[in-house]
Amino acid sequence: MHGTQVHDTQQPVISVRNLWKVFGPKAARVPGSAELGALSRRELLDRTGCTAAVRDIDFDVAAGEVFVVMGLSGSGKSTLVRCLTRLIEPTAGEVVFEGEDILTAGPKRLRDLRRNKFSMVFQHFGLLPHRTVVDNVSYGLEIRGVSKAERTKRAGEVIELVGLDGYGGSYPDQLSGGMQQRVGLARALAGDPDVLLFDEPFSALDPLIRRDMQSEVIRLHHEVGKTMVFVTHDLSEALKLGDRILIMRDGALVQIGTGDELVAAPADDYVRDFVRDVPRSHVLTLKWIMRPKRDDDPLDGPELGPDVVVREATRSVLAAEKPVKVVKDGELLGIVGDEEILSVIAGGSDS
Ligand SMILES: Nc1ncnc2c1ncn2[C@@H]1O[C@H](COP(=O)(O)OP(=O)(O)OP(=O)(O)O)[C@@H](O)[C@H]1O
After folding, report:
1. Beta bridge partner(s), residue 231
2. Which parts form a coiled-coil structure per UniProt (predicted)?
């Protein structure tokens, strides 16, 4: 596992420990049993009639982080994010949100948390067809008892934020799919939640619109800085959006890491398969390709940081007459010359 905390001095916003969700008869016996817990998905189903959709998962999400959950269809991604707010009731484990154990929250507290702290954006936008954009966006505020004047003002702000200025009076069926999902985003932002949860929000959109919406999420993240948990089965989406990516297979966690960690050091063949077609020079950073300094290296070449992406360093490394020094806080970490760069670009550096 290659976890990196983004803001490791702060308490995580969400902390998940030993989380299980088992569907089926007498599900609760599975997490406690070393024997049942060790069975494959198929064996467990045959023996007990149960499916372990989430198996003993641990992770932390840091404040302001975009945390992506990725895996093939059926790997347990949706179940995992739904367990975070108990839209699906976990079978065992711990979910701590801002220091509070969610699994012991009573119904009223849970309702408060869902209304005020979390917002979810789904693949199917779930807009109310007979309500205008403004009324869809402000619906959650209405339920909270916010006055009409105040919620209309807030709706106007978030509608502008997602780029739908001028469409407040439209009805959902007058908007394209991409615009409807913008309404979904605005609705999620309206209540100013601490965490936005996205479950494959753009899967139903065509590729160009999808790309726009990904950029939109990145822009919104810069503007509002919210913590985000984002489910996708699409690696390029995961790499584009995620500060860190959790990869699931058959309910279990396979690897957590930054995009460059997954590409440079996949934990197993499942992850290796996922990242196989990623252009390595777009994702790897110099720290993954540098070599140790040799005695005959001239040390008066240019300097670059270890986190510079190879693609961005290529031109300066190839143009320099001396090898490039990879330096952080004044310390020489390694050397990158033409050879190291070219082996990545040629796709040969499968280290
Ligand atoms: N209510 C349920 N009852 C029984 N099994 C379920 C239930 N919900 C999900 N599962 C099973 O749990 C496993 C994980 O499902 P989940 O929907 O979380 O996966 P996913 O990775 O989100 O897949 P997809 O990308 O297709 O939505 C699957 O095997 C699924 O069949």
Report:
1. 69, 199
2. none
| Length of the chain counted residue by residue | 351
CA 71 to chain centre: 12
What are the pLDDT digits (tens) for 238-260?
A: 999 999 999 999 999 999 999 99
In terms of DSSP bridges, do strands 118-122 and 303-304 run parallel, antiparallel, or are they unpaired?
A: unpaired
CA 261 to centroid of ligand 1, rounded, Å: 27
Ligand 1 atom at minimal distance to the Cα of residue 71? 21
Ligand 1 atom having least distance to the Cα of 79: 18
Q: Are 24 and 48 in contact (CB under 8 A)?
A: yes
165-180 pLDDT per residue, tens: 999 999 999 999 889 9
β-partners of residue 16 are 59, 95
SS3 244: strand
* Sign of the Cα pseudo-torsion (194, 199, 202, 204, in order): negative
Domains in the chain, ordered, with CATH?
A: 62-87+118-278 (3.40.50.300), 281-345 (3.90.1280)
CB 84 within 8 A of CB 95: yes
Give the residue whose CA is nearest to atom 4 of ligand 1. 23
Strand order in the sheet with 227-232: 118-122, 195-199, 227-232, 66-71, 244-249, 252-257
Tokens of 151: 């919620």
255 C-alpha to center of ligand 1: Å? 20
Instruction: Please name which of 228, 232, 224 lies closest in space to residue 202, comparing C-alpha atoms.
Output: 232
Alpha carbon distances (Å) from 15 to 11, 93, 205? 9, 11, 31
State the helix-helix crossing angle for 338-345 and 310-319, rounded to 10 degrees.
140
> For residues 313-324, b (16+ Cβ closer than 10 Å) or e, as one string?
bbeebeeeeebb
Q: Return the number of other C-beta atoms located less than 10 Å from residue 28's C-beta.
A: 12
Contact 14, 246 (CB under 8 A): no
Going by the DSSP 8-state scheme, the letter that residue 265 receives in this structure is S
CB atoms within 10 A of CB 294: 8
Q: Is the pLDDT of residue 6 over 70?
A: no
Lowest mean pLDDT segment, chosen from 130-134, 218-222, 248-252:
218-222
Of all residues in the chain, the percent with pLDDT exceeding 70 is: 96
